[in-house]
């Protein structure tokens, strides 16, 4: 946003209000005008909606003070400043508002720069703006918006008042009628401070017609007062609206709508991630259970195995199959074993001792033991019922067990 609306409020609600719209990008005046009183500020509400607003207030209502306050921290210095000024102020400290500038210690050793205004006056200015629905985030004493060409002073007239800036943190707004008296007093004070009547007084750069009996005047190109203030106000970082008077950030309806949409999207994303995290946890539990089952089955099939991992079961099975000569044909071998399963279930008394599988001949040779001869015959009959061709080898006694062999082919 390059356009700024400047509003110069008055001390009283019935006094004239000046306004100007200035383009910082093009350094030109877009529009300007006057309102007869504060009640007409409502006429600027539409102009204020789409522009930054800077409010200038009469410096006759704001006291600018430079102090040298003992202390190292800004917090301690600012807490002490009001009470150091208490004897110089007409009102009680509690009735005044103190706004501080972030400025470095100057050549005279001043380390505290404060603007003082009555709370009732500041509340009144804010109430005028609120009633007109004008959102102002920055309020500035008007003399601080004048050019600062120290050691020169700067001056311009507005209505029947003279705005005078005397330095980085010095200035005043006075009625033109009392200027001769004020300039004589200022000249006297400066000469007393300098201690030398021949010491030259500051030159005043004047941006509107002005006469002086004591100061040298340096005429500058005449400008509209608010146009001059608008050029230099952005470079002034000070803001009278501090602390309890600081304006809270307000969002436009469009931004508010998008923030609501973004909030809903974030909530939806959180729910989605939470759901996925739960599902992932469930899947991990299922995987862990399956791996445990694989290990249990493997250990049941090979009870002599002491250590086994689910990730290595496949490679271990290949090694087991290689031992029986079927590493390259494990698919056929396992299918063959699956067909034998009913016979083993029917004759649990027969225990296999060794198995060899011949892929080319599609023949499985089984060495087994049992407690009686009849179990071999029963096992053979079971195999023949499942369409196997079975050749039984000789049976031998081995103590309490009978040992025998089978040659089994698929029909």
Tell me what the structure shows.
It is a single chain. The chain is α+β, with helices and mostly antiparallel strands and 411 residues long. It folds into 3 domains: 3-250, 2-Layer Sandwich (Nucleotidyltransferase, domain 5), CATH 3.30.420.380; 252-307; 324-410, Gyrase A, domain 2 (2-Layer Sandwich), CATH 3.30.1360.100. 35% of the residues lie in helices and 27% in strands. It contains 9 helices and 18 strands. It has a 5-stranded mixed β-sheet with strand order 3-2-1-4-8. Strand 10 and strand 11 form a beta hairpin. Residues 325-329 have low confidence and may be disordered.
Termini separation comes to: 91 Å
Q: What proportion of the residues form beta strands (DSSP E)?
A: 25-35%
Radius of gyration over alpha carbons? 50 Å
Uncertain segments of ≥5 residues (pLDDT<50)? 325-329
From the spread of the alpha carbons, the general shape counts as rod-shaped
Strand order in the sheet with the most strands: 3-2-1-4-8
Mean pLDDT: 87
CATH architecture of the largest domain: 2-Layer Sandwich
Q: How many helices? A: 9
The CATH topology label of the largest domain is Nucleotidyltransferase, domain 5
- Total strand count, please? 18
Major sheet characteristics: 5 strands, mixed
Residue share in helix: 25-40%
CATH class of the largest domain, named Alpha Beta
What is the total domain count? 3
